[in-house]
Amino acid sequence: MLTPLRNMLRSPAAGGIFVIVIxxxxxxxxxxxxxxxxxxxxxxxxxRAVSDRTFDSTLERILRTxxxxxxxxxxxxxxxxxxxxxxxxQDLSRETLLSAYADKQGISATTGAIAERIRTDPLFxxxxxxxxxxxxxxxxxxxxxxxxxxxxxLESEMTLTRLQRVPIExxxxxxxxxxxxAAYSGEQRGASWFILEDSNLPEIGExxxxxxxxxxxxxxxxxxxxxxxGISLIHLTADDFISESEVTEDDILAFYDAYKAERYxxxxxxxxxxxxxxxxxxxxxxxxxxxxxxxxxxxxTATATQERTGRRELIANDRLSEQVFSPGAQxxxxxxxxxxxxxxxVIRLESITPGDATPLxxxxxxxxxxxxxxxxxxxxxxxxxxxDDLLGTGADLETIAEGIGTPVLSFAPVDxxxxxxxxxxYLPLVTAPGLLQxxxxxxxxxxxxxxxxxxxxxxxxxxxxxxxxxxxxxxxxDTLVTAWKQQQQAEQLQSVAAEIEAAIASGESTLExxxxxxxxxxESLPRPITRTNIDLQMPQPLISGMxxxxxxxxxxxxxxxxxxxIIMQVTSIDRPSEETLDVLAQTSALEIQNGVAEDxxxxxxxxxxxxxxxxxxxxxxDAYKRSLVTDQ
Length: 632
Fold this sequence. Notes:
This protein is of the alpha+beta class.
């Protein structure tokens, strides 16, 4: 009895009924798919509501794909600290508002539309392309979804897509506007230029004492040195214990054997038979005989059959390739039919040949390093209680460091950015999270609390405090001389560039003559470019200046890199022909339409917000966030 029941459930008709039943149960309130009681909701509008359970499960699914800077999964508390929780609350509030409006207007996605979307999704189909309710449930569970939650998300996605289409449906871009935009984006320009550097100009002399004194007075705020603090630091990491980690030969062999198939064996090759059919119905009719092991030549309805051996790239259809070469594929399994060109292909997997294993000697060092690292992590955490015991006794940094077998690092005074008086920065100080903030909250001679993150911990002491001060004129005289010369060089460079620009614009000189005068060369674009097709490596000021010109021959002096000015002349301006303009206008019309549609939808959302009441429960949301700190 069970066999006919299973066959019935795997039929296309039963699959569709299965989805309809799921959606119908949700719609009638069997689950909390679309709504919940607004009283305990974080946000609600109309019949729509987001419960704390729904919010929490959504956050969990998001965190499946979120990692920190070191590639580790984020906790909910870390997600809250990074603003992810607040952004999710804003997104779900907006989604609830728009869904409630869609309900009011009667344009929400229907149960039938949702069922059809699920039934036709290739992800939820078996190897023959039929909706598989068991695969559907399994995939949702793997990805952290309850069926009701997934269907609610799908309904919301489909509904919001409909709303977003509303503004664009009535838009028609005038031809004249599209042609104007096309003329703007399709215009091609060429240019030539040379780079004037301050090294091409006369040297600046020495400043007078009066000039230096004036500069000192004008820059006192910039010259003032901030408070700096000398720091001593204990930085203990798992890496400090690697030398103490003893990895035996048995450990290496056991690890290799355990992960040989997963990590140290190359991709397998598979032998399979391809059956090619003229259409899907003919292919499906032959599935039974193919599954029964019929010889390829006995399948008369096949237009071609072929046995092939190799890897997944042999199969043209991506879905077939994934199925045939999936880890769970079994010898004798049938996959397809799937479209390939004008035909439909069915594949029977005949055999699997494992890939070649990497010898132990080649990966021995890699395994030993990984095992040593794992052992070091254990030793690191074993050392932390002793660290805390020594800290609790009031011992100084040196005693604590000696007790746990690590050195004390000492650093010259740094400011709140970790910068010394001469501009140096010490990596351990700027990478330790929150270290400098903690240092600047302690008195001289005081220690911070022990702090850190996984596999790393810190303890710091304030050794000295150097108050902020304004250095005397004589102490910064050399700095002032350098600053004065730089200022004079910049002014000279701009002045000479303006003179060159004026000489070329008036016709008194040319770009080539001016370049030769300052012992530099003229460069030119290898070909004209448009505003939207800039595929050449060019300074951004050059591009901006080129398209700011109003006529051929216009010359500009533009700021380039440090101590440079670019003297540029536009050599050509070519506008699209009438025929080209008609073609470009079609793309321009679509770009204008999409841009206007985005602006209209933003305005549409504002009008929806004025029409629909959105109830946000700030107290409940704050309580939820507080729970994240204690739940981790």
